[in-house]
Write a structure and sequence with these properties.
Blueprint: H1 10-19, H2 22-29, H3 42-64, H4 68-74, E1 77-79, E2 82-84, H5 87-99, H6 117-130, H7 132-152, E3 159-161, E4 164-167, H8 171-178, E5 184-187, E6 203-206, E7 212-222, E8 228-234, E9 247-253, E10 255-258, E11 261-264, E12 267-271, E13 282-295, H9 301-337, E14 339-340, E15 343-344, H10 349-388, H11 394-437, H12 448-455, H13 465-482, H14 484-500, H15 504-535, H16 543-548, H17 553-556, H18 558-586, H19 591-614, H20 617-634
Parallel strand pairs: 5-8
Antiparallel strand pairs: 1-2, 3-4, 6-7, 7-13, 8-9, 9-13, 10-11, 12-13, 14-15
């Protein structure tokens, strides 16, 4: 087994040591810092970050990977209303507490190390490769404090000087979590309210003393035994504010002190028995007149939750990437030693094809994730600077605003793709690893079965793969409808470049873009066709208004809803290829990797496009008939 899960990973080190724009990261993270606090140079900051990852890589290899199976076997239990963790799991977190790594991305003014969130997410990848239960719980020591910091930037009670957050209303909670004394959790899901948060029933009401009291049940809460809980609850009646508009966000403590007594504020109903992630407790939580503190304003809960979910989804992508790395290494190592028919199985054609596929998927997903992490972080940091310390020069201000808008668009575009790719590919590669190991992979002697069990939840939590697909489809559709001329220019440019671009690499990436645009065109033509059929029954004077307004999402968008996931897979391949091509432009030695990825992506995208163009007409007609008959019966 490796002695260091960072230094042994050449592809990860390429991104950290050569490919990350550390100058941009330094400018954003050190903006407004005093001379005595800030790093002296970009090189100094990069060296410190690399040293932190090396130390963590060593800890992960020596202290987490060897006990991964023990953590899985010991699992977690509920005893007398308290969560009892695996002893091996608890020991890991005592070690991490001593290392003081939870505060990596937290501002130094609040007790953190002031590193970019990218460093924290890289640490998450390294940890997930060893054990996803540990990585998941690690995230709740850091992710919840970072969410509170984001909310504090909007809070008038916070102290902000020269764009830097000096103190917040949540300082005590942040300090307890980043020092390892406590941790937090995100509390959204309810029985019957998973992806459809609009039907949340947990309520929050003001009592006679002006305190918020929460009542309801939440389920499937990862690390739900955390002290600091970010809870989504309904504050407005469905009549006053239907759907998502009536939701608010609260900080609820699982327990609090009353004198010397420790008072339970939230009851843990049970700990789930799961197929994987055995070391990470997944709890149901019971709120019975539980005291909570409103974050932001009433009715802002869904919007604030989305802010919280952005980095959470990147975190799940990194979790999946760690699993992919582990699966590929296990399969490649086994195949290099297992001999059948006179040769090691890595020289058998099908296995060799599997292994190349796994290698390219892992390296491609890593390139996509580190690009997305950079643009997401820079967009948020510069947005904070613009709000709290904007430049006085109008030209410089306008330039910064354009820069932030561009970064935000790219971050919004990439986030659902990262969550989708990391999740789905972790499951696929774990399955391939088990197949390559054969019977050995199905036994507990090897980690293949554990990797697969642990990976299976990734496409489900923090927004299912299908939700990510619908988000990506909606954004792409709206861009095309908002400016059809610009969309058509992009289509024409891609069609020209796939034939006339100067290099094979540029022609290959242009060809992938043509599949993306063809898929979008096919879906939009079908959507428009359904709309036009309705419009023809109206007087011509009403056609324009009818086409641009009064859309019925359940009927008009049906072709897009059917093919959203296929389109998402094309988008993942296109954006992953783009990331690899951009890497290769800066580092020509990466060109072969980009070309090998795009040759496989070309075949995948062509297949998805054929499905989008030729499949679904009969299915949609049957669904429309069923929906119509259902509506009639209901009436």
């Amino acid at each position: 087994m490796s002695d260091n899960f960072y230094t042994d990973n050449a592809d990860l080190r390429f991104h950290i040591e050569k490919n990350v724009d550390w100058a941009a990261m330094y400018e954003a993270t050190e903006f407004g810092a005093s001379d005595e606090d800030r790093f002296e140079s970009v090189a100094d900051s990069q060296e410190i970050y690399e040293d932190a990852l090396k130390e963590l890589g060593k800890f992960v290899a020596r202290k987490i990977a060897p006990v991964s199976r023990q953590i899985d076997t010991e699992s977690t239990h509920l005893v007398d209303g308290k969560v009892v963790e695996s002893p091996a799991f608890a020991k890991v977190f005592k070690g991490l507490k001593r290392m003081q790594v939870y505060g990596l991305p937290v501002p130094r003014e609040l007790g953190g190390l002031n590193a970019p969130a990218l460093v924290y997410l890289a640490a998450s990848e390294v940890m997930a490769r060893a054990d996803v239960s540990c990585m998941t719980h690690f995230g709740f020591h850091t992710g919840v404090p970072m969410s509170l910091i984001t909310y504090a930037l909007r809070d008038p009670r916070s102290v902000i000087e020269n764009g830097r957050l000096m103190s917040t209303p949540y300082d005590e909670a942040i300090e307890e979590m980043i020092t390892g004394k406590e941790w937090g959790c995100m509390v959204l899901t309810e029985p019957g309210a998973g992806s459809d948060l609009a039907v949340i029933r947990t309520t929050a009401e003001l009592d006679d003393k002006g305190d918020w009291r929460l009542n309801g049940e939440k389920v499937f809460i990862t690390s739900g035994h955390g002290k600091y809980q970010l809870v989504l609850a309904r504050t407005e009646s469905k009549e006053e504010a239907p759907g998502l508009k009536g939701l608010s966000l609260f900080l609820v403590e699982q327990w609090y002190k009353e004198g010397r007594e420790k008072v339970e504020n939230v009851r843990i109903g049970k700990v789930e028995h799961k197929i994987g992630h055995h070391g990470s407790p997944t709890c149901s939580l019971i709120y019975e007149n539980s005291v909570g503190e409103l974050i932001g304003k009433r009715g802002e809960g869904f919007h604030l939750m989305l802010v919280m979910m952005n980095f959470a989804r990147l975190g799940v992508g990194m979790e999946g990437l760690g699993v992919m790395e582990a699966a590929y290494r296990m399969a490649a190592g086994y195949a290099a030693e297992r001999v059948t028919m006179g040769k090691t199985i890595d020289r058998h054609e099908m296995v060799a094809d599997f292994l190349e596929d796994m290698e390219l998927a892992t390296k491609g997903t890593r390139s996509l994730l580190y690009r997305a992490t950079q643009v997401t972080e820079l967009s948020q940091r510069w947005d904070q600077i613009l709000e709290h310390a904007p430049p006085q020069d109008p030209q410089k201000l306008a330039k910064m605003q354009r820069k932030v808008r561009k970064l935000k668009r790219e971050a919004r575009n990439l986030t659902p793709l990262c969550k989708y790719a990391g999740s789905e590919e972790a499951v696929r590669l774990s399955r391939l690893a088990m197949q390559i190991l054969g019977g050995a992979g199905y036994t507990q002697e090897w980690e293949a079965e554990k990797l697969l069990r642990d990976a299976l939840v990734l496409p489900i939590y923090e927004g299912t793969s299908q939700i990510q697909s619908l988000m990506a489809f909606k954004d792409q559709m709206m861009l095309a409808l908002k400016n059809p001329q610009k969309f058509l220019r992009k289509v024409a440019r891609a069609n020209v470049n796939k034939l006339a671009a100067k290099t094979p690499m540029e022609r290959a990436i242009a060809r992938l873009y043509t599949y993306k645009y063809s898929a979008l065109q096919s879906i939009l033509v079908r959507i428009a066709g359904k709309k036009l059929k309705k419009t023809r029954a109206l007087p011509t004077s009403e056609w324009t208004d009818a086409f641009l307004h009064n859309w019925d999402p359940k009927v008009d968008f049906a072709p897009g809803l059917l093919h959203a996931e296929r389109l998402c897979r094309i988008l993942v391949d296109v954006e992953t290829a783009r990331s690899l091509v951009e890497d290769a432009r800066r580092h020509p030695e990466r060109a072969d990797l980009a070309m090998r990825y795009m040759r496989r992506a070309d075949l995948r995208c062509r297949t998805e496009l054929m499905y989008i163009e030729d499949h679904g007409t009969e299915l949609l007609a049957n669904l429309a008939e069923l929906n119509a008959s259902g509506s009639s019966a209901a009436a």
